Structures
1.
Amino acid sequence: MAEPPTTTLLNVRIFDGEKLLPPSTLTFSGAIITSISPSPRSVVESATSNVIDCDSGILLPGFIDAHIHLNGIPSLHALLASGVTTALDMGCFPLSDLTHLRSLHGLPSIRSTGTAASSPNGLHSKLTHIPTELLLSSAEEAAQFVADRVAEGSDYIKLIADVPGLDQATLNALVEASHAHGKLTFAHAAKNIPYAMAQEADVDVVTHVPLDTALSIAAVASMKSQHRIAVPTLAMMEAIVQNLPRAGLNYEAARASVMALYRAGVIIVAGTDANTFEGSPSPVQHGESLHRELQLLVEAGLTNLDALRAATVLPAKFLGLADRGAIEMGKRADMVLIKESPLEKIGATRSIIRVWCRGVLAKEVKHR
């Protein structure tokens, strides 16, 4: 069997999850990072090696978008063009439609919840056209719903908290059944009452933040004390307010909630709710929206460092992606080479020079 191709990056400044290291040398073989040397020009040439002088460019882990809705191969390419090498699909029916897209060579890897748990009277079920036979009307149906999603291959379980929607007993039963299968639970909650219901059900991750009023001190304290993860999707919250202006929707409430969660020490992970389906009331572009999300997180109070960690280190650590999210020996060679430092200006994440996904060079841009 032929040896996997080896690539060596010279004179590259690596983001180690906390800071930028001095110019170093990194080598990866196939899809795996195999060595990191503190010397900027430490290389042993071989017949299979490809050597790239990065000219003090900055190397970040491939970005992770913790909330998207995949729409075919074009959305995979859009993600990759913006340096997103892993994404979590938060709703797909049937999951088999996604199977062939989940691990295409050189394209972002996709984890998915499959079909989200919703109720016949919920707005979400009407917008997403979930088949009626998959909608839940009672807590007694929760265990079978979860077992079916697990059998289909869902990586996580998503439930929709809304009013009208699933009652508290059903939400509780869904989380209990999911945890019995060892699955993390994600709850959609875009207003305060659903957010409280999701917390009472003991979900692991709450995606979105309220657009009616900011989270209360008690709600924030509960998120922190129960070690829940927040995926605010500010890019979507912004898009909803811009595209669907109506009374009771307030982006400032969303931003204030993120600020309060961050100040309390709640784990915040970057997700965009990117979706480009025809007829979507609030389309959000795949890939580019991740950079917008980082900007909005910084505007809501996160430091540039913590915004970067929200799209790399933290989702890897807390969402079952331990083989990526950091530039370390033995990790996947999911990497983004950029020209400028995002620790100085968060918008610099857009200054992409190259993107590697599982060691495959996916994008190369010449900057003047």
2.
Amino acid sequence: MASPSLTIFRGFPTTAAYCWSPFATKLEARLRFAGLSYKKDIGAPPKGPRGKIPYLFVEEKNGASETVADSNLISEKLVANGMAEDLNAKLTPAEKAQDMAVRALLEDKVYFYQTYERWEQNYYTLRPVILGSLPYPVQVLVGSLAYRKMSATLYGQGTGRFSPEEISKFKTDVWENVNALLASSRQKKGSDGIFYVLGGNAPTEADTTLFGFIASCLVCDAAPEGRKIIRSLPAVMEYAENIHRQYFPDYKHWE
């Protein structure tokens, strides 16, 4: 059966380069781990089924099409439709719980620390990039509204209630622990070359998330502190370099 055409709408230019969205890079990693080819388009959150980036347009050879949003739901859809193997199928129950814990740590903790750094601390670096397609006066208006909404979200979620110094410590603690986990997984693998976050011989869903958060931060000019933290951690950088070489050789490197 002919494979359907896949197009990722990631909210950023379609060049062969990583973008600032950790979830868009996560989705690209998921497709590449499955060996699926895809096209990229810019798109916009209001155009997506759930009002956010990324989303995936799937077009069958018979003309039928579907747009799916949310990186986790997209992965589940690909598996259910037989387009991709379940990356976690061979994990033990304990490993599945660990995989989910890594993803939750990044998506429910680090995401908000990164959002705080980008929106609260580096807003004027962020705005022209995420709103670059708009005329400058519109950027100012839309950016102001988006900033207020994001500040309210961060306060309601809890991150915005802490001081910049406390958030910086939270962020550093997470990445240092991720570095320790990766160092352990590298040792468990017992050989040079690529290794994965749980120490197995193949990537799991946690690897899609982890690489998405690392790569998107390394290329983000609105996250200088996060980038500095990540660059200081040898196991994290080795992990990212290996995945870049293995799965994204066509992409511009973050340096």
3.
Amino acid sequence: MTKFRPCIDLHSGQVKQIVGGTLNNESAKLRVNHVSGLPASHFASLYREHGLGGAHVIMLGPGNEVAAQEALSAWPGALQIGGGITEANAKLWIDRGAEKVIVTSFLFPEARFSMSRLKGILEAVGGDKTKLVIDLSCRKSGHKWVVAMNKWQTLTDTEVNKGKVAMRSCRMHLAKEPYIETIGMLEAYCSEFLVHAADREGLQKGIDEDLVRRLGEWCNLPVTYAGGGKDTEDLNLVKDISKGKVDLTIGSALDIFGGDGVKFSECVIWNREDM
């Protein structure tokens, strides 16, 4: 059933909550909801205290490896790590204490999905799909959701869908090219999915209900949705529309991250009662 999944978002070595759509290389345009005065290890220890496994630690850009390592050390073997994960460092992060690695941009050289890279990173973690999470964070494009990379600023050639072939126009050619089939194909290579609705991330204006509903229909593996969560009713909403198949991450609205919409203690109670 639907669970609350906590997060630790790292930017420039600090725990922050950021409006996802503003995350790029221009610091003047960055909108930050909260900067914590507490280290990443504090939040990892807090999640450990309350048994909130499956939390994701996301390194948003450079300068976050020390803080990430501190979080992993506070709860070895229980946290997932993402942000800059490649074939070259995936095993390193598992050895450093991550339960799983989360991969996105590495799978999309020049914004095109690479099966060889997916197979390579799976091989790097010993062929153990339980160690791999595929991040299908996306932006709305018309009536579709398209995987976004490079801090969610670049749309890829990959649509989030069950496995049907959708079509899109290619700027370089007059002919149309198929989107890559996603969830139906990728489930063979990972143990779960993480999906940020990048257009809603950090805005606290409500979840993308259509996307959550579709994820509940399409995914046979565990999937965590993040983006727009504003109150504890969103946990009930996600549970109802996904039939309990999608978990929810709440960030900026959470009191431990400076928010006033959701109390962390309420999320802990939710998970205990749901169990």
4.
Amino acid sequence: MVSTEDCSTHKAGLSPDSFLKGLNLIPTIDMSLSPTDVVIANNIEIIGYDLVSARPDADIKALARNMFETVLETGTYNRFENPHVYGNPRGHQLISSNRDLHTRVTALESLVSSQGDRINSQDNRISGLQTQIEELKEASEGYRHIRQRFLDVFRRDILGSATARYAGNIDAGNAAAHHGDAVADAGLYEGGFRNDKSLMTIIYGISPDQVLFLRRAGDNASIDIINSRATLKADKNIGVPTDVETAFIKYLLILEDHWGNSPAEDPQSALGQAYSEFWSVHGKYKR
């Protein structure tokens, strides 16, 4: 593509303005008109493009000059394009191809972008499904412990086989049935099996959604505290001692300002110190 300045260097004696006036592309402005009456010309693309045969010793500038003279005399002006175009047939074809290519590239970029958004959406969906699978796996482990307990209690009490190696399964089953498990219980609400969310808050101190947020943020340390306090609260023979409840409330208040941060990340932080304080007090009442 050749600018008006380029054309003038190949058309002897023609300045850019006189070249354009020769094409009737720049109207003569009547200086008697007021500034508001002056019409500003549209942007115009001027192109001369051709394929010529030349001897090795040919005068390239002369060939170019002849080609531009032909464009000047025989070119056509297309006012329906934006910008307008003046040039020979091959020039018009080249600009049309360039614009078509630009349109295709833009459409392709848009398609690639939309595909990228779809891939990201699928990645997020897969990640969410993987998290749910892990949570279901954890919940099923508790159920497995309970079934193991059932079988080994039968072996111990009904068959009279009081073997020490079965004690581990019974203890694990007792823990699964009677100890707090905030993640498994929150899954019951997420799955639509329960809707009394206030019960979760009473037992664990936070809502099912907050429990699942901690789980998915990898904050297992906070979940351990929540489960341990719930285990005491569910034991009618112990309940939650005042000093444990005080340490638990303090921990939750600090946790509110540090959602997604595990106390294990910085034991010297306020959250880390509250974490240590809770376990120090809780240890006196460990079941």
